[in-house]
Amino acid sequence: MTARSLPWRRPSPVVPLGRYGGLKDPCVTRVGDRWHLFATGCHEGYRYDLVHAVAPRPGGPWTPLPPVEIRGAHGPSRCAPGVVAEGDRLHLFLQEAYNLLGGTITHLVSDDGGATFDAVGTALASLPGTTEAGLYDAHPCEVEGERYLVYAGMSTVGEPDLHLARAADWAGPWKRLGVVLGHDDVACHNPRGCPAYEWGLEGGQLAELPDGRTLLAAVCFLPEGAEATRQRVLLAVADEPTGPYDVIGPALDPAAYGRTGENGHPAVAVHRGRVHLFFQHRDGDGLPWQLYATSVSAAAFAAGNVERLTGAA
């Protein structure tokens, strides 16, 4: 068995493209009785909006809202939002850039349901000369009552590993815990130095499973295949958020839901015994990224099943 053999419901589009040339980087959180979806809306010229939609449940239907207003955060790539709810307040962690060294992860808050976010501080700053010389794709989550940020950190542009930080409060201070999943941990990921190397591990997100274990969803790149067919949603499970993680592998092949191309940058919501998986998909190079969603019973990730999925049984 592999992650691709899990009994996923057939993925379906989440929201229409509308004004955008592509939709990427979904993030889902719950506030009261409403679910909120945030994502990247792509315009020509590498310009981005933070897309916002709401739904009564993770399975939808999703109602698009106006783009989010961001105040006080800067950078060429203000996208890939990471949002978490604390009561009625929303916390957003936002990168400056994904393809440059330097920069910060900015912490912003919203008290109007996600219509506007105001910067309140710097969550993390890059550390020159380390594996966090560049950092991006930060996503917050709460596991066992503790607050975490999982993010892509790199010493070389394009070769990130997944890093983890922990704090007692969303305002920090954040204690860096180092690499939580690296290239050498993922057999299905292209290794550094291979002729067809495309990119590193990124787009990580943690979610607490009903049995208290931690599900990690992220992006990997297959070591072989044609251009624009190698990005995949990656799944892994651990007893603790800090790992070590048992890598399950790619979650879905596009052919399994009648598409070509590739998928990636996942978001996970665990609700009423189901794991809801949101991800970006495109049918090929030059074609628009769109948002899809699927779900599976959380029981599929129970310890015995994971052993079968990873071949450890």
Written account of the structure:
Strand 8 and strand 9 form a beta hairpin. Helix content is 3%, strand content 49%. It has one domain: Tachylectin-2, Chain A (5 Propeller). The protein has 313 residues and is mainly β.
Q: What series of H and E elements makes up the topology?
A: EEEEEEEEEEEEEEEEEEEEEH
Distance between the termini: 11 Å
What is the CATH superfamily?
A: Glycosyl hydrolase domain, family 43
Shape: globular
Beta-strand percent range = over 45%
Radius of gyration: 18 Å
**Structural class determined from secondary elements:** mainly beta
Low-pLDDT residue intervals, each spanning 5 or more residues: none
The residue fraction in helices comes out at under 10%
Total count of helical runs of at least 4 residues: 1
Determine the mean pLDDT: 94
Topology-level CATH name: Tachylectin-2, Chain A
Biggest sheet: strands, sense, closure? 5 strands, mixed
| CATH architecture label name | 5 Propeller
Number of strands: 21
| Count of the separate structural domains | 1
What's the CATH C level?
Answer: Mainly Beta
User: Spatial order of the strands in the main sheet?
Assistant: 6-10-9-8-7
Which key features would you list for this structure?
five-stranded mixed beta sheet, 3% helix, 313 residues, four-stranded antiparallel beta sheet, Tachylectin-2, Chain A, mainly beta
Question: What's the helix and strand layout?
Answer:
Blueprint: E1 12-13, E2 22-31, E3 34-43, E4 47-55, E5 63-65, E6 69-71, E7 82-86, E8 89-95, E9 104-110, E10 116-125, E11 134-143, E12 146-154, E13 161-167, E14 175-181, E15 202-208, E16 214-221, E17 231-238, E18 246-250, E19 262-271, E20 274-282, E21 290-297, H1 303-310
